[in-house]
Amino acid sequence: MLTRSLAASAVLMLAAWTLGALGVAGPAAAAPPTCADIDATAVGQTCQIQLSDPGYRVDITVPATYPDAEALFDYVTQTRDGFLNVARTPDARWAPYVLEMKSTEYRSAVPPPGTQSVVLETYENVGGPHAATFYKTFTWDQEHREAVTIDTLFREGTDPFPVLRALVQDEVTQQFGVTEPILGGAGTNPRTYQNFALTDDSVIFFFDSGTLLAETAGAFQVSVPREPLDALLA
User: Fold this and answer.
1) Are domains 35-105+116-148 and 161-229 of this chain identical in fold?
2) 41-55 tens-digit pLDDT
3) For residue 223, which phi and psi values (nearest 5 degrees)?
4) Of 18, 61, 117, 194, which is most buried, counting CB atoms within 10 Å of its CB?
């Protein structure tokens, strides 16, 4: 049995060497998504989608070269298509429906090679009493080549959210001038903080309307210093 195994291994090694010598490559890695995959136009380092109709308007600009482009483009496609499903429904409207999405990029070199974050801010008006502004963020770990989420941002076994709540509340108090602004248990709920971006000296959190404060506060962002969180960050 051992002789047969050695013989089989030798055959496999010889076959692999022969293919390499002949220049026959193995399975090619899938090409990264491009602007064309989301029916967008490449403009510089961005993908742009601009649609205009008497009943609606779409204006989207997102990065073309974000490392986790598939996740980013999936979100853009779902948001655009969901809007169009509503906007293309015949009805009586006094003004065109609107979808606008813009992006901001943040980078951190701590620790090297650091992280890259993209923040999508979306404004949507589909004729209700209030237009909506909401966020979606993506953060990429350059060293481990993987996405960073609120579930992996902090060290395993730590409880960062009471600390984070206090830091965020201090910043919110300065912005809005109120002493007890945070709704119920929202301040220690991990989902509250799921949209974030990293820089060298801060963690920026993005909150949709009604997520952390009363809806009258609208959507907003809070930047907290990294130093008090350093021992908790993964």
Assistant:
1) no
2) 999 999 999 999 999
3) -105, 125
4) 117
